From TrEMBL:
It comes from the Bacteria. One of its GO terms (molecular function) is ATP hydrolysis activity. This is ATPase. Gene3D superfamilies: Magnesium chelatase subunit I, C-Terminal domain (1.10.8.80), P-loop containing nucleotide triphosphate hydrolases (3.40.50.300). Keywords: ATP-binding, Nucleotide-binding. The keyword Protease does not apply. It holds the Pfam family AAA_3. The lineage of its organism: Bacteria, Pseudomonadati, Pseudomonadota, Gammaproteobacteria, Lysobacterales. PANTHER family: MAGNESIUM-CHELATASE SUBUNIT CHLD, MOXR FAMILY PROTEIN. Residues 52-193 form the AAA+ ATPase domain. InterPro entries: AAA+_ATPase (IPR003593), ATPase_AAA-3 (IPR011703), CbbQ/NirQ/NorQ/GpvN (IPR050764), ChlI/MoxR_AAA_lid (IPR041628), P-loop_NTPase (IPR027417).
Length: 334
């Protein structure tokens, strides 16, 4: 089966230097924070996933700016934006698209779904049943979708940012482990600090932002082609064998840790390596250190752990397990 394309291919420009890479990431941050006030650590983690060409799962209660963040990010990199509001009655074709008969042409035409975008926001993904959640699996893993037996390539670059409500909330369906593992990173977003919340309220009063997710102040600092060049430069950052071994040992230790019945698979170690390279790039370095691996361990692995019932009864969280694990796994000498 051949793969068709509905988008114009993007040719990346020449590779970037580390200095240029750092300058681009600082410019991105400056533009996004024009619309997305506060929550700097949340944006930093999403930025790492973007640089590492990965998908993001954001967990938090409604109204914390998750949609605004993705819209602002898409505007800052000159990318197309798609959004799917997941509901219990959403069908897979509502995400990927479907074939519709054109009586004039006497043939079926492909009507593209919202997945045909550079940045796709899958809003409240855990409000839809597993069948619809699974519609994203092929697109996230392979960068393509299948419609009526025909495969279509998605535009490049392609990134899914899915949001979910805390699982304790009514009307939510837990994401299957196979889908969780395809997210490079899980970000937990909480309520903003006092000063940030004051700034938000003051901005609304002053007419600087509106309730309809205004990102008009955000200017593109990268084109799609430039973003792909940035991602290519990040993937080429050097990671020594000792640091690679450290990342692998962290991932493997999660499988043997007391109170964990399901640890991180091989994708966990790959996620650590990819995100550690992105972390080094943001720090304007062309090599990865053990500190980079430690810095990304929680967002890279927290959604890949399944805790035993007794650990849950003791109110342990994956973050608690990972924090203890990082103290036990020895890091290589720098």
């Amino acid at each position: 089966m051949t793969t068709e394309t509905l988008a114009t291919p993007v040719t990346p420009p020449a590779p970037l230097s580390i200095a240029e890479l750092g300058e681009q990431t600082r410019a991105l941050r400056g533009q996004v924070t024009r619309a997305f006030i506060g929550q700097g650590d949340v944006f930093d983690q999403v930025l790492l996933a973007l640089l590492a060409s990965g998908h993001v799962l954001i967990e938090g209660v409604p109204g914390l700016g998750k949609t605004l963040l993705v819209r602002a990010l898409a505007a800052s990199v000159g990318c197309t934006f798609g959004r799917v509001q997941f509901t219990p009655d959403l069908m897979p074709a509502d995400v990927t698209g479907h074939a519709i008969y054109d009586p004039k042409a006497e043939r079926f035409q492909i009507r593209r779904g919202p997945v045909f975008a550079n940045l796709l926001l899958a809003d409240e993904i855990n409000r839809a049943p597993a069948k619809t959640q699974a519609a994203l699996l092929e697109s996230m893993q392979e960068g393509q979708v299948t419609i009526e037996g025909r495969r279509f390539a998605l535009p490049e670059p392609f990134m899914v940012v899915a949001t979910q409500n805390p699982i304790e909330q009514e009307g939510t369906y837990p994401l299957p482990e196979a889908q969780l593992d395809r997210f490079l990173i899980k970000v937990v977003i909480g309520y903003p600090g006092l000063e940030d919340e004051r700034r938000m309220v003051a901005s609304v009063v002053n007419g600087k932002i509106a309730a309809d997710l205004d990102v008009s102040q955000v200017r593109p600092v990268l084109s799609q082609a430039q973003l792909m060049a940035v991602q290519k430069a990040v993937a080429a950052i050097r990671m020594d064998e000792a640091v690679t071994d450290y990342a692998v040992r962290i991932a493997r230790t999660t499988r043997e840790w007391p109170g964990v019945i399901g640890g991180a698979g091989p994708r966990g170690g790959l996620a650590l390596a990819r995100l550690a390279r992105a972390h080094a790039a943001v720090d304007c370095r062309d090599f990865v250190t053990p500190d980079d691996v430690r810095a990304v361990a929680l967002p890279a692995l927290r959604h890949r752990l399944v805790l035993a019932p007794e650990a849950l009864i003791e109110r342990q969280r994956p973050d608690d397990v990972l924090a203890a694990l990082l103290h036990k796994v020895p890091a290589p000498r720098q």
